Amino acid sequence: MTENEKPPPAETPSTPREAALQALSQWAGQQTQIRPRLTAAAWRAGTRTIASLARAAGVSRDTVYADLASEGIDYRDRTAIGEEIVTTRPEGGYLLQVVIKSYGVLHREPPGDEVALAVNLTSALRNPPDDPEVRERMIQLNGLDAEVRAYVLDTPGALEIVGRTADQLRTLVEHWGNPTHRIVRCHVYCKGGRHRSVAVAEEVATWLRAAGYGVEVDHLDVTKPVVV
Length: 228
Known about the structure:
By secondary structure, the chain is α/β, with parallel strands linked by helices. The chain has helices at residues 16-27, 35-44, 50-57, 61-70, 135-138, 146-153, 158-180, 196-210, and strands at 86-88, 96-104, 117-120, 184-190, 214-219.
């Protein structure tokens, strides 16, 4: 680069997650006293991979663990601070055998727990907000509402997805979960995590509970607004 040449301008981050990572990368080495706060900010903005945080900050994974702990963050908890997670569970006592998580890929990276089965609905089934005839009503509702659940499950192929998923989870419980006393974990995800993934996750849970299995469902993004 010659004396008169200017370095290319830094790329403007397009999301809060990218902005927080960029700040961590630019300032962590120069201002070590604020590195824990920058690391925590990147975590809260959605970067939940320790290796990514360590790479951006130019430190070891152990240092990232220590920085997060100093800011009151448990790295094992992959949900964002302040988020409202809605959990549905059967009434009365039960043996927990299956945990299903619904979420939207436009809001988060996949949760970091050990998952046995993932159901991708990003390009499957009818998405209620995409239908101009019902959009205005549906954006006020979510997959826990009967109207939304009926709309999604009336889509051709929806019950086949539900049945296949329930059968796969039953097999996993019987041949892997029960013999090892481990909980079988399943992810069901769509784009926004408010309608399709919620409706399908709840229907799968209903089928499994009817067959006598203990199932809880965590909806990570059901309270978030519709992604335009």
